[in-house]
Specification:
13 helices, Urease, subunit C, domain 1, 427 residues, 34% helix, 2 domains, TIM Barrel, alpha/beta, binds zinc ion
Length: 427
């Protein structure tokens, strides 16, 4: 079994603690030993990697991934890509994300082609293509007129949704997705401002429909996650014990109390990256700030900032991931979300990093996200200190190594690390 010893590194272990000097031994696909301070690891038959003082940290985890999005400008375009072409885009996206240091993706929804993410996951696991670990999701299970229902009378059109109305169709939708191999069931309990039949503060489903979906997903031991923007939709999700709550932009302090009472179990994610870039960075695509304001995006972002600053103070587990996969926030720029956590939600840089590592690992449900003995060796070597500035992770040139499951995706950039070694040591 191969053994790699990383020396002359500073370790960010994923918990949010300060960087500390140390050494890490990787054996096969596992982190075998971690030594900090002046302690040294003794081992024979090892390949030594001298990190030149670079930062060793867990691979990034994207907790709200849409790996099959096409960097489109409008959702129906996702439906217009034939499956064969779409599969190739998905394969390319997976590699792009791994290039950027994302070693694991928790899918927040697939697209209207149910098998796409599943086939991608299986191909990556078989070693046919490079890509992150992936938990594949269903399309957005949505009601007639809800977010993801693109149908027009007399014309076929689809994007990201699987339409199910009523108890029986809900059960069938979950069974179908389970049969095709998804890990995550996504249900849209609220609409959105782009949906023609259910606005962002409208409930798309009844209690009976949500209950049926949850029951069918639980029976099959699938993760269940929800798109829910309004207070009522989050209340409904809580009532049915859905613990992975996306958006929640408009929740009230009373609903926050309910969440806080269950904070060990609940994961939340604002997914504000898309909202931010649509308001401020989409003018090249004809979306001016005034136009975005007309879509109520500013109201949405302001409310989201209020809510998540409060959730942070209450110690709720909040995860990054900002619906990357549109033209103005393309796949591969996902690390931008950590900067949003700092600027919009008041996180420290190391708290934001912890959200993308330790908390992401908890969400994935496997031993990843920490530099700790017994954890899987998904590791990055970073030129610089991301606990002082998370934005350095947005430039893949700062990634001096990407390792997934003990294997290099990007070999250690030894020349660059040697130069670091010669440079005067940072404080
Ligand atoms: Zn999303």
């Amino acid at each position: 079994m191969s053994q790699i010893l990383f020396k002359n590194i500073k370790i960010f272990d994923g918990t949010g603690k300060k960087l500390c000097a140390g050494e890490v031994l990787v054996q096969g696909n596992m982190i075998q030993k971690v030594a900090t301070g002046t302690k040294k690891i003794r081992a024979s038959n090892v390949k030594v990697v001298d990190g030149g003082g670079a930062t060793l940290m867990p691979g990034l985890i994207e907790p709200h991934a849409h790996v099959c999005y096409t960097d489109c400008t409008q959702l129906p375009q996702v439906g217009q890509v034939p499956p064969e072409d779409h599969m190739l885009i998905a394969v390319r996206n997976a590699k792009t994300m791994l290039d950027q240091g994302f070693t694991a993706l928790f899918s927040a929804a697939g697209v209207a082609k149910i098998r796409l993410e599943v086939a991608l996951k299986e191909a990556i696991n078989a070693g046919h293509f490079p890509g992150p670990r992936l938990l594949a999701a269903s399309p957005e299970i949505t009601s007639t007129g809800g977010l993801g229902d693109e149908r027009l009378l007399h014309l076929h059109q689809e994007s990201i949704g699987l339409i199910a109305d009523g108890r029986d169709e809900m059960i069938r939708a979950v069974r179908l997705c389970a049969r095709e191999g998804v890990d995550n069931i996504k249900i849209n309990i609220s609409g959105d401002q782009f949906a023609r039949g259910a606005g962002m503060e409208t409930l798309s489903y009844t209690d009976e429909e949500v209950a049926a979906c949850v029951e069918a997903a639980n029976e099959r031991k699938l993760n269940i996650l929800t798109h829910a923007r309004s207070d009522g939709s989050i209340r409904m999700a809580l009532k049915h014990n859905i613990n992975i709550l996306y958006h929640a932009d408009f929740i009230t302090p009373k609903t926050m109390d309910l969440i806080e009472a269950r904070k060990k179990k609940i994961f939340m994610a604002p997914a504000a990256g898309l909202i931010y870039s649509t308001i401020y960075e989409a003018s090249d695509w004809g979306i001016t700030e005034e136009f975005a304001e007309g879509l109520e995006l500013k109201r949405k972002l302001e409310s989201c900032m209020r809510v998540y600053n409060e959730l942070r103070k209450r110690g709720i587990k909040v995860l990054p991931g900002g619906d990357y996969g549109f033209a103005w926030n393309p796949i591969g720029t996902n690390a931008r979300d950590l900067e949003h956590f700092v600027n919009l939600f008041g996180y420290s840089h190391s708290e934001a990093l912890r959200a993308a590592t330790q908390l992401g690992g908890e969400l994935m449900g496997i031993n990843i996200g920490l530099v700790k003995e017994g954890y899987l060796a998904d590791l990055l070597l970073v030129n610089g200190d991301p606990t002082q500035d998370v934005s350095i992770l947005q430039d893949s040139d700062n990634l001096l190594m990407v390792m997934k499951d003990g294997e290099y995706h990007k070999e250690p950039q030894l020349e660059q690390m040697a130069k670091l070694r010669l440079a005067p040591a940072a404080e």
